[in-house]
Amino acid sequence: MPCPSCAALPSPLQRCIAAVDYAYPWHQAVAAFKFAQQPAWAQAMSQLLLAQPDCHVLVEHCDWIVPVPLSAQRLRERGYNQAWELCRALAHRCDQTGKCLPYAITRHHVPQTQAKQSRQERLRRMHRMFALTSGNSTMWAGRRVLLVDDVMTTGATLFALAKTLQAAGASRVDALVFARTPFEG
Fold first, then answer.
1. pLDDT tens-digit profile of 84-130?
2. pLDDT tens digits, residue range 23-58?
3. Mapping DSSP to helix (H, G, I), strand (E, B) and coil, where does residue 37 land?
4. 33, 22 contact by CB (below 8 A)
5. Euclidean distance between CA atoms 133 and 143, whole angstroms
6. Could you tell me the pTM of the whole model?
7. Helix, strand or coil, per DSSP, at residue 175
8. CA angle in degrees (0–180, nearest 5) for 178-35-43
9. In 3D, which of 77, 85, 84 has the Cα closest to residue 40?
10. How far apart are CA 64 and CA 62, in angstroms?
11. Cys-Cys crosslink for 59: which of 65, 88, 94, 151, Cβ 3.0 to 4.6 Å?
12. What is the DSSP string of 51-69?
């Protein structure tokens, strides 16, 4: 059963698989992974994700695997993109590293973080947030793209990326996230 927000605004993603709820104790692991310079968490997180039904199928049957990009400023602050670390670990475990495109999409910097914004605010801000890197727009035509991120809260980021890829011609966009904010059903 979809959450009320998803029912009101259907997802552009064909499928989205999450390993865990973004709640105790997993929110602490995500915080360490994302903010405490512990990219090694990607190994355990990828293993938990791949234990989910159909996760291997999405990885093996996609044409491209794309991590959710960070803005250049955020990447400088953190020193690494946690979505790329997770993406790389997933692809390596499935022997699909040749499908990874870590720099195919750029993200424009927005000074305010999204953490305290409503879903509607996030969706408004995501409009035109992402751009395909120059010279690669035709590579998406008819392709199945798998997006990878650490956490899905409102879905605004993944939805904006999916719409950008669909506008470029992608035939299908799925997502894998380690953690998903639980909703009250």
1. 999 999 999 999 999 999 998 998 866 555 556 665 666 566 656 88
2. 999 999 999 999 999 999 999 999 999 999 999 999
3. coil
4. no
5. 17
6. 0.88
7. strand
8. 40
9. 85
10. 6
11. 94
12. TSTTHHHHHHH-SEEEEPP
Look up residue 101 and give its two tokens.
Answer: 């495109």
The answer for residues whose C-beta is within 8 angstroms of residue 71's C-beta and 6 or more apart is: 107, 108, 109, 110
Residues 6+ apart with CB under 8 A from 8: none
**Contacts (Cβ under 8 Å, ≥6 apart) of 41:** 29, 30, 32, 33, 85
Residue bearing tokens 């956490």: 151
Q: Cβ(150)–Cβ(179) under 8 Å?
A: yes
Give me the amino acid identity at 15. Answer: R
Strand-strand pairing, 105-107 and 130-132: antiparallel
* Residue with tokens 């980021």, as numbered in its chain: 157
State how far the Cα of 20 lies from the Cα of 176, in Å rounded to an integer: 11
Q: Specify the amino acid at residue 152.
A: M
Query: What is the SS3 assignment for 78?
Result: helix
